[in-house]
Specification:
The protein contains three helices and six strands. The protein is α+β, with helices and mostly antiparallel strands. The longest helix has 28 residues.
Length: about 160
C-alpha cells in the first residue's frame, strides 16, 4: 500500500513568499513613518529675532518688568508659535510683574530644572486678552537682587 503525499504547488509557495515580502515592506514603512513623525519638527522652523515687548504683550502684560535689561528674544513659528527671551531683571520687579498676570503666579524653588526658581503660568482661562496659552519663567541665577531670567510664551 502506497500513500501519495501531496505538497503545495510551486505557485502557492511563491504566493506566500510574496505576501510575506509585502508584510515586511509594510512593517518597514510603518517604522520609517513613526521615526519621521517623532523627529523634532521645531528644527524645521527658523528662529527670528523679536522685540521682547511682544513676549509681554502675548501674555497680556503692557510691557516687560521695570528695570529689564540685556533682553534678547526670538520668535519661532511652525505649527504653533513661541516667544523666547533671556533678560536680566530686578527680582522684586519680576515678582511684581508676575503678580499682575492672571492667577497672580509666584516663583517657586521646587520642581525647577536648570533654574533656582520657576513657574509655569496657565493662561488658557484668561480669554481673549492674551494670545499665549502658557508662560514659562525660569530664574537661572541671581546676584545682588538682579535675576537672569529665561521666559517663554507659547501656544501649546
Amino acid at each position: 500500500m502506497s500513500s501519495s503525499r501531496r505538497g503545495l504547488p510551486w505557485w502557492a509557495w511563491a504566493l506566500m513568499a510574496g505576501a510575506a515580502g509585502l508584510l515586511v515592506a509594510a512593517l518597514a514603512g510603518g517604522v520609517t513613518f513613526v521615526a519621521w513623525a517623532d523627529t523634532d519638527l521645531r528644527e524645521a522652523a527658523d528662529d527670528v529675532p523679536a522685540d521682547c515687548v511682544d513676549l509681554a504683550h502675548a501674555v497680556g502684560a503692557p510691557g516687560l518688568p521695570e528695570g529689564t535689561s540685556a533682553a534678547t528674544c526670538t520668535y519661532i513659528e511652525f505649527q504653533d508659535w513661541q516667544y523666547e527671551g533671556m533678560m536680566t531683571v530686578p527680582r522684586a520687579e519680576l515678582d511684581a510683574w508676575l503678580a499682575e498676570l492672571p492667577g497672580s503666579p509666584a516663583l517657586a524653588g521646587s520642581g525647577c530644572t536648570d533654574a533656582i526658581a520657576c513657574v509655569q503660568v496657565d493662561l488658557t482661562q484668561a480669554g481673549d486678552e492674551v494670545d499665549a496659552r502658557y508662560l514659562d519663567v525660569a530664574v537661572r541665577s541671581e546676584k545682588d537682587g538682579i535675576a537672569e531670567v529665561l521666559m517663554s510664551a507659547f501656544t501649546t
